[in-house]
Recover the amino acids of this structure.
């Protein structure tokens, strides 16, 4: 009895192990496909904090900022997020020499910087966390 | 359809399924010896793995594949160990629980303790101290002095020293610009590392000496600006290896066994020939769990666990294990490349090369591709210190997979 079960199980084990490997390779593949490599040098960028597979819409891991960056639901934004929570034009980040300022564009649900709702334009610091709904971005400025 | 069905949860569920099936099979196998205690530990293992994988997803924003891969390897390993020797299996489970706990502990320490990259002298001192206590209190087993027995538990200091070595190299190269001002600082570092290798050689722990040299040369190759030093090191190790082969009989015998184990089949070549027989006996799909004869392989749950797995679960499982190690090392290097903080970058690269070299040396040894040296297969083989140090290394890798960039201080 045991012998038959064991003979059967060895095939099942091999199938499970290979499915495990396959699913990990598949996930890593998706992970790499969504990665756009940021060039080195002095630059600032937003990095997605959320796990990408937890968000039900298309979003990248990195968005580099040069001069100006806008986020919203409309397709003419630099970052387009098809989430009903996001306004058509939600916020923008503007570069002024070495500094970056974030400004809310009168969005319905607001933009939160380190947990506080944005009222005016605020200067961004390294490690600042920008939150819209449940999407969180980390601001990184390498030029600073 | 298949690819659509894969979500982030799929591998965790597959792992869960694998463990449930394997444990129920083992319980049928051991049906007459079964008691509540064993049943509870088995369930404990499954819960431990599932919960810790789930928890990590919540705690860490970093990579979530490396721990999954490690726990898969560990599950294949512990099931084989339990099948060969239930007592060892239960002890292994204890070590694994401690290992997973230390994984989380290391993760938190390396994440929140900020001056880790400034303790160069402490690391060097610590490494020498571990060597010292090995020589003072060490016991000689299988021709190597590398075990210390404390209160019934065996402890292998070199397993910790190899992590310290990675820290030494990471500290040195992350603050390379500062240390470079000292004349010949890279040469001094080289001498220190070679002294470690020499001490390991005196302990006759050849496998560990190769790991040390491998990590050192890889990191030096990536980060050292004085390229001549790398060629000098390669030359030195070549000459050193040849001299060792001529002078020391225990080095020579390993090479001789590797070239022709059949000549020594009744004595020193017994291990490797039994391992080859076992792998051949298993074939593609193996004999089935509990139906092979791993008791004929010496050290079946230690150094030769790969042969035992191949015998009972087939060479396909063996290939699967090698692929899992490939994925782990690939993941580690990817973490290292995308990490911007130099200290954590070097740690990640060092640890990935550690896993790569260590699994290559023992798998190559068991398959008679390279001369056999007794080290453990990370995560799979039985062994207290080895499991603990592997999980600690994984914890460091987990920290390194997170975004540490904004934490850099711009001095």
């Amino acid at each position: 009895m045991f012998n038959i079960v064991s003979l059967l199980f060895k095939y099942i084990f091999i199938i499970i192990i290979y499915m495990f490997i396959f699913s990990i390779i598949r996930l890593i593949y998706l992970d790499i496909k969504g990665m756009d490599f940021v060039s080195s040098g002095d630059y600032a960028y937003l990095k997605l904090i959320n796990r990408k597979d937890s968000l039900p819409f298309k979003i990248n891991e990195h968005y580099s900022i040069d001069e100006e960056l806008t986020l919203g639901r409309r397709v003419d934004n630099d970052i387009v997020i098809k989430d009903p929570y996001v306004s058509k034009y939600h916020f923008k980040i503007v570069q002024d020499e070495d500094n970056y300022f974030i400004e809310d564009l009168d969005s319905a649900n607001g933009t939160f910087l380190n947990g506080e709702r944005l009222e005016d334009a605020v200067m961004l610091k390294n490690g600042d966390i920008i939150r819209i709904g449940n999407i969180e971005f980390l601001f990184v400025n390498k030029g600073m | 359809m298949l690819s659509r069905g894969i979500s982030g949860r799929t591998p965790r569920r597959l792992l869960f399924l694998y463990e449930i099936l394997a444990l129920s099979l083992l319980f049928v196998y051991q049906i007459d010896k079964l008691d509540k205690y064993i049943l509870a530990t088995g369930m404990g293992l499954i819960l431990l793995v599932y919960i810790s994988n789930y928890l990590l997803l919540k705690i860490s924003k970093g990579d979530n594949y490396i721990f999954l891969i490690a726990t898969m390897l560990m599950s294949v390993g512990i099931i084989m160990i339990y099948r060969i020797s239930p007592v060892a299996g239960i002890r292994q489970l204890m070590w694994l629980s401690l290992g997973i706990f230390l994984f989380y502990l290391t993760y938190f320490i390396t994440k929140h303790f900020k001056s880790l990259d400034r303790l160069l002298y402490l690391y060097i001192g610590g490494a020498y101290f571990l060597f010292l206590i090995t020589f003072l209190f060490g016991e000689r087993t299988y021709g190597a002095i590398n075990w210390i027995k404390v209160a019934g538990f065996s402890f292998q200091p070199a397993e910790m020293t190899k992590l310290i070595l990675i820290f030494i190299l990471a500290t040195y190269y992350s603050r390379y610009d500062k240390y470079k001002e000292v004349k010949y600082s890279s040469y001094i570092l080289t001498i220190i590392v070679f002294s470690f290798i020499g001490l390991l050689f005196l302990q006759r722990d050849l496998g560990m000496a190769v790991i040390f040299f491998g990590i050192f040369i890889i990191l030096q190759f990536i980060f050292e600006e004085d390229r001549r030093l790398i060629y000098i090191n390669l030359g030195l190790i070549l000459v050193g290896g040849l001299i060792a082969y001529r002078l020391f009989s225990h080095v020579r015998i390993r090479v001789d066994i590797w070239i022709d184990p059949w000549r020594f089949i009744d004595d020193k070549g017994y291990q490797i020939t039994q391992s080859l027989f076992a792998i051949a006996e298993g074939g593609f799909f193996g004999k089935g769990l509990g139906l092979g004869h791993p008791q004929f392989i010496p050290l079946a749950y230690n150094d030769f666990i790969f042969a035992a797995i191949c015998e009972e679960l087939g060479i396909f499982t063996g290939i699967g294990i090698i692929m899992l190690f490939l994925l782990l090392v690939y993941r580690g290097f990817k973490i290292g490349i995308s990490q911007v903080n130099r200290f954590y970058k070097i740690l990640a690269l060092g640890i990935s090369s550690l896993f790569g070299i260590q699994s290559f040396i023992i798998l190559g040894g068991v398959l008679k591709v390279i001369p056999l040296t007794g080290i453990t297969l990370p995560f799979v083989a039985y062994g207290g210190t080895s499991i603990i140090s592997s999980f600690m290394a994984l914890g460091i890798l987990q920290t390194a997979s997170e975004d540490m960039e904004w934490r850099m201080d711009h001095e």
